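Run: sequence + shikimate-3-phosphate -> complex structure.
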Amino acid sequence: MFSAAKISPISKVRGKLSFQGDKSISHRAVMFASLAKGASTIHNPSSGEDVHSTIRIFKQLGCNIKEDTDYIRVVGRGFKHFEEPLTELYAGNSGTTARLMAGILVHQNFNSTLTGDDSLSRRPMFRISSPLAEMGAKINLFNNKTLPMHIAAVKKMRPIKYLLKIPSAQIKSAILISGLFVDEPSTVIEFAESRNHTELMLGLRVEKVPEGNLITVSRKNYPQSCNYLIPGDISSAAFFIVLALLLPDSELRIEGVSLNPTRSGFLKVLREMGADIEELNRRTYNNEVHGDLLVRSSELHNVAIPKDLIPNIIDEIPALTIAGLFSEGVFKITHAKELRVKECDRIAAMCSNLKLIGSDVEEYTEGYTFTGRKFDVPDDITFRTFYDHRIAMSFSILSFLLKDGAKIDNLACINISNPTFFTDIQKISG
Ligand code: S3P
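>> structure
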């Protein structure tokens, strides 16, 4: 068991920060560098536990991966040249590792087993085993639903035409990555746009069709070794942006952060809420947009969040909720049932913690609503993280904002995505 940690209030934040590489892009860079033949370098990777799960698995598959302070050197094995792992492949807490790896492992000429921690072992995997099975994969799940995932070697896989019903970049990417091993083209159509790092990093063709985006992939897109520069993680920065907006007399400059349009819906919503966020030095590298942000204290009001934006802001909804709590008017999240199958049930987790501070929060199947600026914090409060890094960071931010601070039941899970969370807070809070 973990002992609860007390978080004391801070009065303002000032200064500048840069963040370790975006988690989603770091996973993909490690994967594509490992698939490619020869040496690649990945600058500014995430050093979070999730990306380490991906690195560990590729080491088990025979890749030579050396980690330095701010870069990783990967010597990839080339097309279908991985070594058969001696043990099962443990994806830890990382959904991206488990789901995207499945798209790679189904094409190898050995059997493999993917496992995960308690949280990952509860998360749905049929959503990827089903399309991969359509391509010819032989996958066995526990109860046909969850990890462990047993993958048997098959002789030949076929292309797929897939209509993505769940707006998920992990499902889309598992299929697209699997399509890299097949000569004939595979296509995925997504109705609602989710993060497009796989498409950008592999240079895939994306066409706008009446149903949404039509993405095409084949062996022609198999990655080559190269240098990657990973932009700062906007999902890690999100918590600091909210803090700078809500604390008085604050100004925070965030340098070199990802401004990929499929990830920056969070900034759009905040600006509509009245946030003073200036964008500077926009630049592009490896097809990914980076830039700096200047964030100043702002008076916020809640706005309607369109349903099409939900896949774009899915990881930022917990941070946005904290902004909503201090904003005028009603905060409402709908069409977000995917939140129920994240590292924890984030709808239930947010609602139960908000109830602790007397919010009038109402829980729905696909979201929740509450009145902003209406809460009353009792003495000696302890928020629960449910061992979910984004819940832990959201309620840490809230604790920094409360007059007497608050306790959090477990902060260790923050290392899943941002091991520098508290040192960064220290840097900007004096
Ligand atoms: C991710 C996609 C999202 C996101 C997760 C990372 C990715 O999940 O929540 O943190 O790297 O593709 P879904 O695609 O399942 O929504």
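>> summary
The mean pLDDT is 97. Residues 369 and 401 are 21 Å apart (CA to CA).
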